[in-house]
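Sorry, explain these tokens?

___
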Amino acid sequence: MAIKGLGLILSLALIGYLFHSSDLGNAINEAWIDAHIRDHGATGALLFLAMGMLFTACGMPRQIIAFLAGYAFGLLPGTLLGTFAALLGCLLTFLYARLFGRSLLRNRLGKRASRFDRFVHHHPFSMTLLIRMLPVGSNLLTNLAAGISSARMAPFLAASFLGFLPQSLVFALVGSGIAVAPVLRIGLAALLFLLSGMLGAWLYHRHRHGLSIDAQVDAALGEMEHRHPESSPGRSSVDSR
């Protein structure tokens, strides 16, 4: 898990370096980021938010959007804009699933939505925040599952925004470091990524209260050994996932 995350950081840094130092970078970055977003004030920021919303709603990793936000706007503005773009994509996917896609998605995501319901039922804000802090899992599937579940939109979105911030900061730091102190910033981003991932895994282990958001997440975080569905009939909230 950690190796995959570090690989994503290093690959984005390499792509950003190539964009910055080569003709390929001039053709792509200056044709899009530089020509339409960077130094274009509110218009550029709104265009970036629209782009980030659509791409994350369609399943693009929000880390890439944060990376591009850091490249275009710098560390702190990029962190906030990248997070807000991911939140808008989350909202778009959530509303689509809730308003239009319930019948279409119920057969495919019904079990996942049921797990989500059980996971966030008593503490929707804190448990959604816990999900967003995890270093594994699918952002798109979580948004769709939340949309067809009974989860309330306001706490889900508020917790999602806060939960998106740590990784947005990490990847905006990578994007903003392509031209300025790249070794320092990319090294710091790798360290922050590891720390945030360890924190998310520890919080999940500590506060999930025997519940699970996804069996694959449990396996990735080493939680499978704590589940004994065949011998624990009293723990139906876990076993029925």
Notes: DSSP finds twelve helices and no strands in the chain. The chain has a mean pLDDT of 77.
